[in-house]
Write a structure and sequence with these properties.
- By secondary structure, the chain is α/β, with parallel strands linked by helices.
- Helix content is 44%, strand content 15%.
- The chain contains twelve helices and twelve strands.
- The longest helix has 22 residues.
- The protein is globular, with a radius of gyration of 18 Å.
């Protein structure tokens, strides 16, 4: 039996990056659907959507509660928006499932969760999306919290799923404490990935990426300056953006985590060890891709 634990390297990530053909256009570089945001958290939705474009996605449509649509349209220029049914101001209704199903039909990937909230209606909507929509999916933040205690829903999926929990969200998924997760990061991520047939990105210092086949990859990039709001939203967008362009969920997870941390490392050296923002990491992603391809 071969090794099961690996370290991500620049050479490995570079091997995933296929140069675009000269005749590439937005119709050939994928279309992502993001379902995110709620009252007070439109920034999470905006950063997720724009981060996917920073990673190279050709088109991104952001689905958000209809009353928030005028707000989000002032935050994102290159992203299309889709106002969705809400149960009250800024909160998605579970009846939005029909609109989301139609929107997802022609998309290459679906990202759900950042800033979406945890109301009863929203949790119901998330569970319907996960169990009914067979588009490759990236689940983050409140998307993960919505299925805590009901993770069996993941086994109903016919398309790949990538979960991006921080230790607290992972603890809720496996019904334990964050301290226990942190003490057993490799085993926790690996067991969950195997048991549910999903890819798990367990965030934190030396992020762990586990796959259904039992392999685990450890990321060497990143630094303590990333302990700041919005970093996870950027990672979700970059990861979904890579899947949208045709990378496998496994390769997309590796590339997104590595480049996300590398962008932060560059900012730590140029801006300072703390105080740089998630939006700056987002905007640095293209430079990190360029740097990777030149080496």
């Amino acid at each position: 039996m071969g090794p099961k634990q690996f370290l991500l390297t620049a050479d490995l990530i570079k091997s995933y990056m296929t140069p675009r053909t000269e005749d590439a256009h937005k119709g050939t570089t994928g279309h992502l659907l993001v379902v995110a945001g709620s009252t007070g958290k439109t920034g999470a939705a905006a950063m997720t959507a724009v981060s996917a474009m920073r990673a190279g996605a050709g088109l991104v449509t952001l689905g958000i509660a209809e009353s928030l649509n005028p707000i989000i349209e002032t935050q994102v220029l290159e992203v299309m928006t889709a106002p969705l049914p809400e149960c009250r101001y800024g909160i998605l209704a579970d009846s939005a499932i029909d609109d989301i199903t139609k929107l997802a039909g022609a998309k290459n990937c679906l990202a759900i969760g950042p800033g979406i909230g945890q109301t009863k209606e929203t949790r119901s909507l998330v569970k319907q999306i996960i169990s009914q929509i067979n588009t490759p999916i990236v689940i983050d933040a409140d998307g993960l919290n919505s299925i805590a205690g009901q993770t069996q829903l993941l086994k109903k999926r016919k398309a790949p799923a990538v979960l991006t929990p921080h230790p607290g969200e992972m603890a809720r998924l496996v019904e334990t404490s964050a301290a226990v997760v942190q003490h057993n990061r490799l085993a926790c991520a690996r067991d969950f990935a195997r048991n549910f047939g999903v890819h798990v990105v367990l965030k934190g210092a030396r992020t762990v990426i586990a796959h259904p086949d039992g392999r685990v990859f450890i990321n060497p990039t990143g630094n303590p300056g990333m302990a700041s709001g919005g970093m996870g939203d950027v990672l979700t967008g970059v990861l979904a953006g890579f899947i949208t362009q045709g990378l496998t969920p496994q390769d997309a997870a590796h590339a997104a985590v590595y480049l996300h941390g590398a962008a932060a490392d560059t900012l730590a050296q140029t801006v300072g060890p703390i105080g740089y923002l998630a939006g700056e990491v987002m905007n640095a992603i293209p430079r990190e891709i360029k740097k990777l391809l030149r080496n």
